[in-house]
Each structure stands twice: as C-alpha cells, then as structure tokens.
Amino acid sequence: MAGSGNEVVAEEEIIHQSAAVESAIRGHPELVPAARPVLPRTSVLADMDAFFREFDRTSFSSRHAEHFWTFDDRKADFEIFRVPQGGIRFLRALWDKYGRCSLYFRRGVHVGSSLLTLLCCVLAHMEYTRLEDITEVHILEWKAVVQEAIEGGFKFGFILDYLRRLAHGIFSRRVLAELREAEARVAALRDALNIVAPNPWDLAAARGASAESSGGSALHDLLA
C-alpha cells in the first residue's frame, strides 16, 4: 500500500509539473527543440506545445451531434429550449452546481436549442469515455463544441477549465511513463558501468581512454 501511495503522490506531482511545463514551453518555444537532443525518443514536449496551441485557438465544431452520442427522438423543455430528454439531467447538474449558465444568452431559441443539444451529446460521450481512454482528439473535439456554445452566449468557461485539467492528466501520464523508462535506462547503464568499471580507478581510466585520440590501434596498450 505504501508503494501505491507513493505512485499516487508522484503522479499528482507530475500533473502539476505538466501544467508548469505547458506554461514554460508556451513562453519559451526554444525548449522544445532543445529537449530533443537530450531525449531523442520522446516527443511529449512537442506534442504538448502543439496540443495547447490548438486548445487555445478559437474553433467551432464541424461535427454533427450524432458523432458524439445518439439520444432517442424525444425532446423536452429545458428553460426556453428544446433538448433531448435524455440530456436534461446533464444540464440540470451543471445549472445546479454552477448557476444559470444561460443568463447572458441573447440568440434565438432555435440556435440555443441546437447548441445545448450538441453539448448534451458531448456530455454523454464524456460520461461514457473512461479516463484512461481519453485522447487529445477527444478533448479538442469536445472543446470546439463548448467554445461554440460560449460564443453563443452560454457561460461554460468552467467546462473549458475542466477539459484543460483532463489534458494535463493525459500528458502527466505520458511524462510519468517516459520518466520511468528513462529511470530504468539509467539504472541499466549504471549496472553496465559497474561491470566494466567496478572501482573509481577503472572509471577514471575509461574516461581518459574515451578522451584520448583514436589514432592508435586496438593492440597499442597491450604491447606498449
């Protein structure tokens, strides 16, 4: 149980670090190419940079509601809007927790009903999708729907904040996995070093040999 607790703490710390890394690479894009020579097998920093640039870009969804979820044909009233009856529970939960999200909506009832219907389908898809199965594509598609509803006048900024936290979770798991892989590689290299240079003198000799010119032959030190 202690080991499990340590992993939870480590993963939570990585989540916070991923947010810091996001901020850092957004402010210092030179960090992305700079990281590649150090960790040539990883693209997580580049992926994070590309993802959050797209996340912060204003974009609207080109998907139909059925792409995310299909409710039955029954419609019901929610405030002045007509939405799928099966999606009303999501809207009520949002309104109960965050207040009346349609307070500043000024567009037509038909537009509002369409936006909320699309949002209901996204929320149903989110409920169906397990945390470990969420991808960057999911989050960007969900974000586009929420952003369109916000542009329409609904107060859904808190959903964008939540989606950003989900993205931090995705990248934190990727960073943690690569960190564990790097730690395993370092441990293997240390074991190999202990085999070929088990004492400090051997290590110093190995360093000296690597620094010398390669002009001599492999037989030189044996006969010199």
SSE topology:
Layout: H1 2-27, H2 31-38, H3 44-56, H4 65-68, E1 75-78, E2 81-84, H5 88-98, H6 109-128, H7 136-151, H8 157-196, H9 200-211, H10 220-223
Antiparallel strand pairs: 1-2
Summarize the structure.
This protein is mainly α and about 220 residues long.
Description:
Helix content is 69%, strand content 4%. The protein is mostly helical. Among the domains are: 57 residues, no CATH class; 91 residues, no CATH class. The chain has a two-stranded antiparallel sheet with strand order 1-2. Strand 1 and strand 2 form a beta hairpin. 21% of the residues are buried. About 5% of the residues have low confidence.
| Count of extended strands | 2
| Alpha-beta content class | mainly alpha
**Shape from CA axes?**
rod-shaped
Which residues form runs of ≥5 with pLDDT under 50? 30-41
- Distance linking N and C termini: 59 Å
The average pLDDT value, as a whole number, equals 79
What is the succession of H and E elements? HHHHEEHHHHHH
SS summary, helix count: 10
The order of strands across the largest sheet is: 1-2
Rg, alpha carbons: 27 Å
